[in-house]
Amino acid sequence: MSSSRDGRPVGQGRWDGTVTLSEALQIAVALHRKGETAEAEALYNRVLAAQPDQPDALHFLGVLHHQRGQSAAAIDLIARSLATLPEQPSALTNLGNILVEQGRLAEAVEAYRKAIALEPGHAGAHSNLGLTLRALGHPDEAEAAYRRAIELVPAHPEANENLGNLLIAQGRAEEAIAAFWQAVIATPKSPKTRRLLAMAYDAVGETGKALEILREWLADEPSNPIAAHMYAACSREDVPQRASDAYIEQTFDIFADSFDAKLAQLEYRAPELIAAALTRHIGPKAGKVACLDAGCGTGLCGALVSPFVEHLVGIDLSSGMLQQAKKRGVYHELAKAELTEYLLGAPGAFDVIISADTLVYFGALDGVLSAAAGALRPGGLLVFTLEETTDPAGFSSYRINSHGRYSHGRGYVQTLLDNAGLSTLDIEAAVLRQENLKPVDGMVITARRLGA
Predict the structure, then answer these.
(1) Which residues pair with 376 in a beta bridge?
(2) Is 214 within the bounds of a domain?
(3) Which of 128, 192, 311, 416 is 20 to 30 A from 139 via CA?
């Protein structure tokens, strides 16, 4: 049983004449686990009113605040818990997880290492430490942390997935396949692991094995939009004109909490490239414009362009991404919406539309570019990124790639901009990110709507 700072047992005496503090805390935790967070929060607070330094109540209330997106309050509560009772591996690990999401990676590493010092067999802390070290640019240390977690729990799904992702990024696909198979052993029906394993096989040219995994996945989950899209991407059969709403929503909801950290590992540059292009072309209207961040994600673009605009709107299909974007505090409006439909419903509403790595989930661009032109005021700017196809046949078309995104030919994009009434100002070649130790070649396109 936990103790308070002065050594009194939590459950000493009766509280409100019916239950002890310890019993009240157990009830609060049970409510929390059932998702009855309002009732759990009320009970945690009653425990803390009776014993303000109760470490478990502080810790779990902190976790609850984090689940609601109130990370600053969560960090404060867990820090207070640890000040009362420093030797709490689980609280230190949870603190590390929240610090990672806040971008405070060095502090997160310290929290994980303290947790491991207290509980060397904490495989989850080793795995999370590896993720954070990788994000900080220490791949060798990250690999050692993952392998330590796997030594402790050989079929640890997250550690094996994390190790596999690191190995893929280093071009060690064969080793990655072995790690992903260990994750499959632990969680045979995991959609995430199936996707990673299929992509790893495709990376080493074993497309047949990749398709076999995807077919098994579809047999188990015939309506799973991620499985269907990845099968189309890998097989090139029945390729959709764009990724489905359900695919986008599910994919990005899964990655919302860790999205920024994962992109940092990939040296993701699209938001900076968008902001630089906008700065070059926005002219005297800077600071006075209404801007749409189309496919805003976690708000990486919005944070960079907000100083140049008067009113910033962000839209996305992923609720998880929108929750992260809201935390940045730079958007005047956020909405869950499909991009083309939203643009069609907002004629002449914006001076600027920006879109970083959103149209890579569209194959055919004619509809969305036409809708974007209609949503711009005369003279308005459209700035967006695409991945550029290296397929000579794609000069006037597009293709889907095995990772699920589309790439486009310059000639195709130029023709559609002209057809939509958009004057092309610039199509700049750029590296958008690194993937499997290779640069992802892309384009930063800036166009202006014709008219006075």
Answers:
(1) 350
(2) no
(3) 192
Q: 333: burial class by Cβ within 10 Å (0-12, 13-18, 19+)?
A: exposed
Q: Which domain holds residue 415?
A: 264-449
Q: Looking at 27, 55, 86, which one is the last position of a domain? A: 86
- The model's pLDDT over 382-436, given as tens digits with 9 standing for 90+, comes to 999 999 987 655 445 899 998 899 999 999 999 999 999 999 999 999 988 877 6
Residue 305 CA to residue 290 CA, distance in Å, equals: 11
Separation between Cα atoms, residue 250 and residue 379, nearest integer Å:
36
Asked if residue 165 is part of any domain, the answer here is: no
Please report, as a single letter, which amino acid is at residue 16.
D
CB 438 within 8 A of CB 430: no
pLDDT in tens, 323-363: 989 989 999 999 999 999 999 999 999 999 999 999 999 99
What backbone phi and psi angles, to 5 degrees, belong to 148?
A: -65, -40
Residue 37 lies in a domain: yes
Q: Say how many CA atoms lie within 13 Å of 250 toward its Cβ.
A: 14
DSSP 435: E
**118 in a structural domain:** no
Q: How many residues does the chain have?
A: 452
Q: Indicate whether this model's pTM tops 0.85.
A: no
DSSP 360: G
Answer yes or no: are the C-beta atoms of 402 and 387 closer than 8 Å: no
Return d(Cα 286, Cα 50) in angstroms, integer: 55
Q: Is 428 helix (H, G, I), strand (E, B) or coil?
A: strand
CA distance linking residue 356 with residue 321, whole number of Å: 14
Q: How many CA atoms lie within 13 A of 68 on its CB side?
A: 17
Number of neighbours of residue 296 by Cβ within 10 angstroms = 29
The CATH number linked to 280 is 3.40.50.150
- CB-based contact 384:324 (threshold 8 Å): no
Domain count, the chain: 2
Q: What is the DSSP letter of 236?
A: -
Domain boundary at 37, 70, 86, which?
Answer: 86
